From TrEMBL:
GO terms for molecular function: pyridoxal phosphate binding; transaminase activity. This is Unannotated protein. GO terms for biological process: polysaccharide biosynthetic process. It comes from freshwater metagenome. PANTHER family: DTDP-4-AMINO-4,6-DIDEOXYGALACTOSE TRANSAMINASE, TRANSAMINASE. Residues 1-62 form the CBS domain. PROSITE patterns: CBS (PS51371). Gene3D superfamilies: Aspartate Aminotransferase, domain 1, CBS-domain, Type I PLP-dependent aspartate aminotransferase-like (Major domain).
Amino acid sequence: MTDQLLAMQDVCVAVDASIRAAVEKMDANCLGVVFVTDKGRLLGVLSDGDFRRAVLSKAADLDASVSTIMNGSPSTLSVGAGAEETFFTLAAGLEEGKKVFPRIDAEGFIRDFSYREHWGLLPVAEPELTGSEAAYVLQCVEQNWISSSGPFVSRFEQDFAAFTQLSHPVAVSNGTVALTLALQALQLGPGAEVIVPSVTFAATANAVVAAGGVPVLSDVDPVTWGLSPALVEPLISERTRAVIPVHLYGSPCDIPGLRELADARDLLLVEDCAEAIGTTSGAGHVGGLSDAATFSFFGNKTLTTGEGGMVFFRDSGTEQRARQLRDHGMSHSRKYWHEVIGYNYRLTNLQAAIGVAQVERADSLVSRKRHIGHLCEAGIAQIPGLTMMPVSPFGESSYWLVPVLIAPDLASHRDMLMELLASDGIQTRVTFPALHTMPAFAPYPRAADLPVSDDIARRGLCLPNTPRMSDESVAYIMTCLASNMERITALARGEG
């Protein structure tokens, strides 16, 4: 974010200016840097470090041109480069100790600048590994239990089951596998249709295909951004076997209503809780009303094992079937005797060790993310042109991320907003593009109209939410959002 107290003339000097003039301007702007330009085109940068080195080498004649000691290959941010490139360019520069970054256009002219003083980079999500993770992993190494055998796997299953109050857990290698295994263990059957939301990570539909089924893409509810009975019922056919609701970004959807519909139509209900660790619905954690509930422990999730997943079932028979399928279809009683076709879906003891340490702090991690989510709700309510994802009436969100919608008349400027935030050191990401718009899912059936999915995909973006963020960091994000929204609003109105 460009400091409102500093204008471009406060940070730029002409190439024919003296070193003395450049240092005086550097001292006045308190940034420790000036940009050397030729009629607005960036030629180089002079930092206080460059000046000190020149003095020590006796190369600093204060009346000489600043070009004699400037850095002619500075780190820059490119206007129009996109949010991801901007964020990671900033990250690389910060690792090298740089604090100020000019933003240049395709012709090399400086259009803006960004600098980091107090907050550093704010990734959209990151693991929090400050508990016993390292100690438990070291224990695995010292005891030579590094593969899928070892005490931490079953301990992780038991501990996470205790946290969620769900039963019959099976730990697996990732969240996608958890969904696939759930459908296989529930004996979905080839060609069976499974209704899934169009706004979700693709793994929800990919798992259906991997299990031999056919995903049917539904629109989502405008409040929960998930499936609802009213949306699902018209899509049920004689081939429908299951429904997979997703608690998108940690917000609970209408599971009681979907459970009632599934029972009435003799359908399986499989909850995709990949983003919903800590999300509650009714009296308990999400997942308790379904035939299977799956979770992800990818590196950006609230609890992580790097890669990992878990699936819960309603009965021990389905759990045992899943355990056999997870381990190459081998007999539980006869080693290397394969009774059914199975795969290697196992979680390693190393990964589970991290998971055990994570679950030990699950309550505090979820509580912190909820607190950040509530701070963001209060802040975004004060920013014209932005609205938060609605609060679900079906439970309490765990705020995996903080999804917002930009006003319809500003939607074409969403990517610009993300790029501006990236230059402020704030990483964002778009909400999931709708599956029904992607080539991979073109062959599969879908609802005749999916307006809410299209709207979320067009206007949505996600703000950071990590337990490591301070309240001050949240305030900084809100300040940057407000400033940059003013900027793109002016551009949209032709005022900028």
